C-alpha cells in the first residue's frame, strides 16, 4: 500500500474501499471481503446508513483497530447537531475514534459544523477532519474562518472530470485531494473502452480500471473505489503494481470534460 501524509502528519492509505449505496444487509459481508482482500481504509457516511455494518466487519476481523483508517461523513447542520451526530456515529461503528470525519456537503452552517469537528479532535474522538464537495471559494472561506486547515477535500474526480481547477488550490492549501467515483460510475464503461486506456492496459498487463485508478494515484490523489465483487476488489487494490510515465499521464489530460457525469 502507498500512503499520503495529511497536513497534521497522519498517514492515510491512497486506496480505500467506498461503501456508497452498499445495501445495509450486505455491508458487513462486503467489508469483510474487502478486509480479506487487503483493504484497511474504509469510507462510509451517516447518510449511507451503513456505519454499523462497516464497524461490525472491522470488529469481526480480529485485526487491531489501529490497523484501520476509518472515514465517515457528517450529514448535520450546526454545532450541537454535529456533536451529537459524532457520538451517535461512533456508537454505530463500535469505536471510540474516527481516523477522519468530514463534512459531507457544504451548508450555511458549515462553519459551526466544522467547529464541532475541531472540538472532536481536541476530545480525542477524531484524528483528522476534512470536507467533501467544497469548491475552491467555499474551501478558502472555511480555512480563513477556522483554526484547522481541512486534511482532505473529497470531490468527484475521474478521467472525465479531473478537477484541474481545484488541484492547484488544494496544493496551495496543503489539502489532500480525495476522489469519489474514481471510475465515474455510469461513464466508467465508456472510459474503459477508450483505445488509449486499452493500449496502456495491454502495455502494463493491467485492466482498464487499474489504469484509470493509477492515473489518479500517481498524482497523489486518494481513491475510494467501490465493488462487491471480490475479483474487482483485489484488482483495484493491485492497481499500485505498475507506474506509467509522466508523458502517459499527461496524454490522458485531453479526456477531461471539466464537469460531472
Describe the main β-sheet briefly.
Answer: 8 strands, parallel
Low-confidence stretches: none
Roughly what percent helix? Answer: 40-55%
Mean pLDDT: 96
Shape designation: globular
User: What radius of gyration results from the CA coordinates?
Assistant: 18 Å
Can you walk me through this structure?
This protein is an alpha/beta fold. The protein has a single domain, classed as TIM Barrel (Alpha-Beta Barrel), CATH 3.20.20.100. Helices cover 41% and strands 16% of the residues. It is built from eleven helices and ten strands. It has helices spanning 24-37, 51-60, 79-93, 110-122, 136-145, 166-173, 188-192, 195-203, 208-217, 230-237, 246-251; strands spanning 3-5, 11-13, 17-18, 41-43, 69-74, 98-103, 126-132, 152-156, 176-180, 222-223. It has an eight-stranded parallel β-sheet. The chain has a two-stranded antiparallel sheet with strand order 1-2. α8 crosses α9. It is globular, with a radius of gyration of 18 Å. 43% of the residues are buried.
The gist of it:
The chain is an alpha/beta fold and 261 residues long. Helices cover 41% and strands 16% of the residues. The protein has one domain: TIM Barrel (Alpha-Beta Barrel).
